[in-house]
Amino acid sequence: MRVMAQVAMVMNLDKCIGCHTCSVTCKQAWTNRQGTEYVWFNNVETLPGQGYPRRWEDQEKWRGGWERTRSGRLRLRAGGRLKKLGGLFANPHLPELGDYYQPWTYEYKNLTEAPAGDDLPTARPVSQITGEPVDTIAWGPNWDDNLGGAPAHAPKDPVVEKIRDEVGERIRFEFEQSFMFYLPRICEHCLNPACVSSCPSGAMYKREEDGIVLADQDACRGWRMCVTGCPYKKVYFNHATGKAEKCTFCFPRIEVGMPTVCSETCVGRMRYLGVMLYDADKVGEAAAVEDEHDLYPAQVDCFLDPHDPAVAAAARAAGITHEWIEAARNSPVYDLIATYQVALPLHPEYRTMPMVWYVPPLSPVVEAVAATGSDGEDAGNLFGAIDALRIPVEYLAEILTAGDTYAVEAVLRRMAAMRAHMRAINLGERPDESVARAVGLTGTEMEDMFRLLAIAKIEDRFVVPSAARAEADALADTHPLDAPCPVGDRPEPRVMLNLGPTRRVS
Ligand code: SF4
Ligand code: SF4
């Protein structure tokens, strides 16, 4: 057993209201500058929809992630070194600006500085890259937001295309017959990152101390193999610097015990941050299991129980501090993934072993049952209705469990049971323990799960180890900001982009 620790995230899709605050605050923090106009480290997609960049889930086209060979080994879908060498100067598997969007702004000055006259001044759209007027704005990073243009665009969702034969009429895009939910996305900070293995310069790396995947700006040579290699399309090319950039998991904040910007500013309070301990020796085998349906349980099997004394001892022996082990024990992410088993990985079939997981949306079930005149919170009604979900279970399964509907149904049943249990309590009734038992939990666990999912306070949602904070405070005490610089004038602060400590996982 080789114990390693990683900061990970869970997002509860039932609580995302699609406000895009996370995207905007992330952009303000990280990509509000020349060269990254089109870049959204965090974006929020409406599903069904094509996403950003357009149709990113179509790996036949983009060749992202890993595939399993007949001999059971993993190889990059985009090919090995020789193939990469051949595509150095003409890589056909790279999204173009049109696949993301042409970033634009408006000539606002026209509105405020136009001389008085008979005509109303207008603010024409202009490209943020060239400054030239944009004739037609035809696509954007959230163009199909709230199913805008769904009859035209949503059928091109790669997941819809894949399951259309299977679910037929249950996927509809006419008004009032469609379904939708939001999917906020950041880099997955994968355990088996295809971006790292794709980089010919060794610039992409996964930090040993917390698992955050970063792009070293000094080492990057701008080959963009990482952009192709990442199946989630979460590495971007900065056209001003000629380097790759990506979500940093806000490592300067994480290092001092603070949540990521997207988590802290989330209006729906749907994000959870915490430490996961895992057995690094198991990762390769788990990512290469033959049956795609086994990928989700295989990844769960890599995670270690931080309450197990043997795991804690092995973690200490591996140099993981007491604070990190304590944080892993209090991790809301561990609880949602392993204790309550309600969080699932995004597209496990890409075999990168992602570390941002999702609680699938249940709300439409309640609404669907209530619309038939039945009691939408009754456990019996809810369990029965999961089969007839307005969001087809097959659709959720293609996104979260490589198509295994049984695993998604199990999560939805647990969520439905929690609703029924809490409803009984709220009505002053005695909750029926058999409902909790039917989904493998106790009534007390139901109530704990409800507290975490519904009303958890900030310190329960974000458990980021304080060890880093203690070290940072100690450093600040040694070098207070207002102290005279021992070597002369204090240098201007350097803007750090994706540059973390250089300890790497080989
Ligand atoms: S999601 Fe992030 S860590 Fe995973 S392959 Fe893509 S860029 Fe790399
Ligand atoms: S801020 Fe939170 S609720 Fe709003 S879109 Fe982002 S994830 Fe969803």
From TrEMBL:
A single GO cellular-component term on record: nitrate reductase complex
Gene3D superfamilies: 3.30.70.20, nitrate reductase domain like
4Fe-4S ferredoxin-type domain span: 7-36, 178-209, 211-240
One Pfam family in the UniProt entry: Nitr_red_bet_C
Domain of life from the UniProt record: Bacteria
Cofactor(s) this protein cannot do without: [3Fe-4S] cluster; [4Fe-4S] cluster
Keyword annotations: 4Fe-4S, Electron transport, Iron, Iron-sulfur, Metal-binding, Repeat, Transport
Record InterPro entries: 4Fe4S_Fe-S-bd (IPR017896), Nitr_red_bet_C (IPR029263), Nitr_red_bet_C_sf (IPR038262), NO3_Rdtase_bsu (IPR006547)
One GO term of the biological process aspect: anaerobic respiration
Renumbered residue ranges of the record's region Disordered: 481-506
Recorded GO MF terms: 4 iron, 4 sulfur cluster binding; electron transfer activity; metal ion binding; nitrate reductase activity
Subcellular location: Cell envelope
NCBIfam families: narH
Protein name: Nitrate reductase
Gene name of this polypeptide: narY
